[in-house]
Structures are given as structure tokens and as C-alpha cells.
Amino acid sequence: MKSRLIRILSSVMTVILIITAIPLPAAAAPGFNQLVNASTEIIMVNEGNYTTVVRDDVGAVSLGKICWHATNALNLLKEIVSLNPSQALNILGASLYNEIVTRTSWEGRIVTKAEAAALSVLLGTSESRYVQDKTAWKYISEYVQHGIDLGITEPEALVFFADFENQNGRTGAANYYYEVMGRFGRVNLATLYECSSKNSRRTRTYNFCATINWNDYSSSPSYETDTVAPEISNVAVTDITSEGYTVSCNASDNEGVIAICFAVYYKADGSDTAKWYRQEGSDSAVFTMKISEFGNRSGDYCTYIYVFDNAGNYTYAELNVITVPEAEPATPPLSVTVTSGGKAEVGGEIRWRAAAADGSGNYQYEFNLYRDNVLIARRDYLDYSDYPVTIEKTGSYHVVVNVRDTENGTTASVTSSNIDIFTPITINSFIATEKEASIGQSVTFVLDAADGEGELKYSYTVYKDDEIVFSSEFSDNYKFLYKINDYGIYHVTATVMDSRSQVVTVRSDEVAVIRPLSAENIAFSKAYAVAGQEVTCSADVLGGTGAYTCVFSIYCDGVLVMTSEQLDTSEFTFTVNQAGIYTASVEVTDAGSTVTTADGGSMEAAEKAARGDANCDGKLTAADARYALRCSAGLDRIEEAVFYAADVTGDGKLTAADARLILRAVARLETL
Fold it and tell me: How far lies 176's CA from each of 35, 161, 181, 190, 494, in Å?
């Protein structure tokens, strides 16, 4: 470890080099060191403190007073470790210590909770504080110098700029400076803040800078001055049980104790597995170690106490190995369980069976039989653990079984679950008064139910095409009237409940509400066509019974030109054979021999498409050029009947030249 004298000389030389590298401000302005000290204070307010560890800060660890990130954090730790390797190894354990010494990059390194606890202890040492103060001074001096180099002269603006660069890096800070300069033509505290996001950090920093009292900051950097380590006293280990132990101690320091830490590990696992427990700001501490945090293992545990003061000085005490005894195995108490089986109805037999455990193994059983919570029978203590009962009345039955250990006299008791034995509800029928109905008609559903316990209640749920459309509350009505308001297949489920809350559900017959057969929305697949093109005529067939067939009649200018065969689909594809206005008629026949006819549709047809009308819509537009181009590229396929219309160059091929010529014709630069 470097001596204090060497560290101080090194710090002074660093400060001298930094100071000689920059132009001095005017005499009335704060000195460079004051600028750095003020910047350091607000950056620490915004970032953290000496012992801060952010396990995952945007994909990697950040730590320390200005939250060094990723590899910068690793490099800081390397220097701290180098000042006192044995101390660092003792705190970190071999695995984490070796990683810090050997690794060259911590990009993407996220630390575990246990690693973060150990790192926080290391960061609280005097060596760490010295390295953090020195490194922070170097970093923040560079931030301030960067602002001066860019031309910022207002001291408060330099502090604001330094905090911004700490968070956003040198390039981000430079871009920020030029953004402010470009927007306002000057860079000072007011324009820097106005051009910022004005989030909580920027606002906090602005308020700090606007009210700086420069006399509060030393004109030279100062590192640790307190070298007196704290003291530990009155260490006591108490309450050693099979679950753990308690450690207590007192601590004192000339400048005040900042934290008392306990490090504990299972001896057989080694110090790398130590768990850290920290108690802040007190001169005494009590810590209870629970083996539940160490896999519930009894045996030898190692415990260390660390005490830190405000300057990072620390003292530690190694306690003797503490042995946690094994818990004495508990003797299970006498216990009993009960099961039942048999025929749960009047006249049937139910057999309750008890089973005792633990104790001596010699048991006797007493059975107490209850109906509706009233004791109706008892069988005194016997070795026999079965209890058969013939059920004579309806009710809710259970038994209470008492068992006693005949050797040691201990007893146990258990109550069985209830077995309900009631007269079941009988459903004789549930019928609909109609098998078929029409819209607006009311259908009655009649339920014939009997038996059960007490008065019966009824609830009804209506389904249309197996989807619920209505539900009723329970009532006394065994008849249910429902008004049909839509086409579909209906059925109703009835739920019957008696006074004992027994329920039975039954489904009614189906009621069919058939929509009349109709054909609608007759249409052609094209609004404009030419002779030789294929066109599909379709219709929407609704209602009717079962499967249907269609016959299409196609008319041109009112004259029948073709008739389809009887089709089992509602579409008919045909080839246009002449020019004119096309309409259609469709005759539909369903499985019940119902026949309906509908007319409709309209399509204009020409003998041939006009030159350039590639998409055959009867118009010459840019869409024709686009379609011709897609066809030339193989993205669309043009029908043979209109190929001549797109081949405007007449070369027997469809190319980009055709698309270009069509486009020129649309713009009236060419005549086709």
C-alpha cells in the first residue's frame, strides 16, 4: 500500500499539472479548483456516494461517487485493490478479487446481489476514498477544462456543463454546446438550462449553480485527512440455537461511525460465499444469523465484524468459529385420519375408516355419529377401526373419531367431512310445445320434476345455435314461455334446485325457426369485360332447409344467351361471347323442394378492349400502365383476351416499353 506521504505528493503533482494545463480565470472569478470542487459536489448529489453500487445500469455495473460505469468501474477497482491487496482479497473473496485483477473489460458485466454487497464494503475503505477522490478530480477537471476550451466563461455555466458531460460523455456535451450556441448565440447558465430537457437532474443542477457561494469551496483539492481507525468493543455471541445465533458489538470513532458490517460464511464453503449485512450510522449493532439463509445447515460458521468511519478508515474483528448445533428430531404427535365409502342413499351402508399414526402403535377408536349436527349414535373405544352404518333417514351425516394410545394414554381426534343423503330430484320430462316456430311466435317449455327436499325452484337458460341468448333467475314456475325473435335452432336448459340446494339440469327438445329460402346480391365479378374473358356470376343464398342447388340464366341486352347446369354452389363462371349489357337470373331449390328465383347484376361488355386499356376497365388511366408493367415483370398475369390491348407496341410481347407508351398516351403525349 502506498504511504500517505506518497499519495499526497502524487495528488499535489496531479493538481499542479492540471492547473498549468489551463488558462487562469480573471482574478475576481472562482479558481479552477473551486470550479472542480463545486462540480464534484453536484455530480455526487446526482450520481451517488462512495459506497454506491448500481448492479445493472443500462447493461453494466456502475459504482462510486460519480458512478463509474462498466470498464471504467473495473479500472477504478483495479487501482483500489492495488493499494491494499490483502484487504481487498479478504473483503471480496478470491473469485471476485481475481476477476478484477485479471479482466480487461467489464462491458456488459452485471454483478449479483452478493457481489454488490462486497463491492460496497470495499468502496467504503480509505484506499477507495483516496482513489475515488483522485480519479473524480481528474475526470471532473477534464469536464471543466473541456467547457473552457469550447469558450464557456461563466463559472456557473461551467459547473452545469461539467455535470452534463458526466452523464452524456464528451461528444454529447460538445454537441450540446453547439446546439445552445446555434439556438441562442451565447452559452451561459440560462441558455444551457433553457436548451436542456429540464428534467429533475437538470433542474436540480440549475438551482445549485444559480445559488453557488464560491466561498464554500476550497481552492485546492483535499483528500482524506482522518487516519484514525474506529474501535470495536463489547463483542458478544448469544442465543446459539439450532436456527442460528446473535452477534452484538459497540463501535466508536473520533469522527463518527458510518457503518457496521457483518460478513458470514459457512466454513466448509469458504470465504468466497460470504454474505454481507450492513447497518448504517450507529455506534452499536445487533445481528442475528439465521441458517435458513445458508441452506438450513448446522455446523461451523465464520463471522467477521467491520466498522467504517466517515473517512473510509475501518477496523475488523474475526470471531471464533461458531458451531450451530443440529436440531433434535421432533417426535411426531399421535394423529388420526378418517375416510368413508359405500352407498350414500337411504337404505345404503356407509363405512367410515379411521387410521392412527405415531405413538406406540397400539390404538383404540371411538366413533360418534351425527345427523344434521345432532349426535345420534356412539360406538365406544374398540381396537376395530371401521364403523359401518345403515342409513335410515335423509340428512347430512358426519362422524367424530377419537383415538387413544393404549400404552402412553395420549389421544387425538378428527371430524370427517359431511355426507349429504337426501331424496334426489327426479326429472320426468322437459318438452317444447312446438318443434318448429316462426319469428314473433312464443313457445312454451314445460318441465315435469318431482321429489327432492322441500319446495322446488326453477331457472331457465335459452340457447340459439348453441349460444346463450337469455337466462332467468330461480322461480316457482315450472313452465317457461319464450318469444322467438330471430332465425336459428333453439333449445332450453332447466336447472331445478330443492331446499337442500341439490340441483339437476336437463335439456329440452330443439325448436327450429327456419328462415325462408331467398337469393340476394346477384353480382358479376367484373363491371366491364370484353368478349373472350371469363366472368363469374354469384348470389347469396339464405335460409331454406338443407343443401341447395342453383341454375343461372345469363342475359345480354335482355336476351337469354346461356343457362348453367344445376349447380351445388352459388357461383357460375362463363365466357363472354358478345358485346352488350349483361344481367342474370338465379333459380334456387333447397332440400325441402322449395324454389325461389331472383334477378339482378349488371355488367357492360365490349367486343374488344381499347388499345392501352390493359386492365380492361373501359378507361385509359395510369392504372393501365402500372398493370402492364407488373405483367411484364411477372407480378401479374394478363388474360389472353386483352393481351392485344396492352401490347401497344405491337411486337407480340409485353414489356416496360408498352407501359411507358401507355403512360405517355394517358398524358396525351402519344396517340395509340
Answer: 20, 9, 9, 14, 75
Give first-to-last CA distance, the chain, whole Å: 95
- pLDDT of 331 > 80? The answer is no
Average pLDDT over residues 348-355: 94
The cell 470513532 sits on which residue? 253
CA nearest 270: which of 25, 405, 93, 20?
93
Which pLDDT does position 258 carry in this prediction?
80
**CA–CA distance, 389 with 399 (Å, rounded to integer):** 11
**Helix, strand, coil % over all residues of the chain, rounded to 5:** 30, 35, 35
Strand, coil or helix: what is 85?
Answer: helix
Cα separation, 308 vs 126, whole angstroms: 9
Q: In whole angstroms, how large is the CA radius of gyration of the chain?
A: 47
Tell me the C-alpha distance between 249 and 279, whole Å: 12
Which DSSP letter does residue 565 get? -
pTM higher than the cut 0.85: no
The confidence band for 254, taking pLDDT boundaries of 50, 70 and 90, is: confident
Q: What's the Cα-to-Cα distance from 319 to each of 236, 287, 313, 358, 575, rounded to whole Å?
A: 9, 13, 20, 43, 101
Buried b (16+ CB within 10 A) or exposed e, 103-127: eeebeebebeeebbbbbbbbbbbbb
Dihedral angle sign, alpha carbons of residues 660, 663, 667, 668: positive
CA pair distance 558, 135, nearest whole angstrom: 97
Angstrom CA distances, 45 to 165, 204, 215, stand at 15, 9, 19
- Segment among 25-39, 70-84, 329-343, 518-532 with least mean pLDDT: 25-39
Query: Residue 351, Cβ neighbours under 10 Å: how many?
Result: 13
Single out the residue of 634, 574, 626, 628 nearest to residue 605, CA to CA.
574
Of 398, 442, 438, 392, the closest CA to residue 417 belongs to 398
What is the pLDDT at residue 221?
A: 57
Confidence of residue 398 (pLDDT cuts 50, 70, 90): very high
Quick check: 366 pLDDT over 70? yes
DSSP 153: -
Residue pointed to by grid coordinates 319446495: 455
Q: Grid coordinates representing 267?
A: 466454513
Examine the pLDDT at 516 and tell me if it is beyond 80.
yes
> Side chain identity at 174, as an amino acid letter?
A
- As a whole number, mean pLDDT of residues 642-658 equals 88
| CB within 8 Å of 570: residues ≥ 6 apart | 519, 538, 539, 540, 541, 550, 586, 588
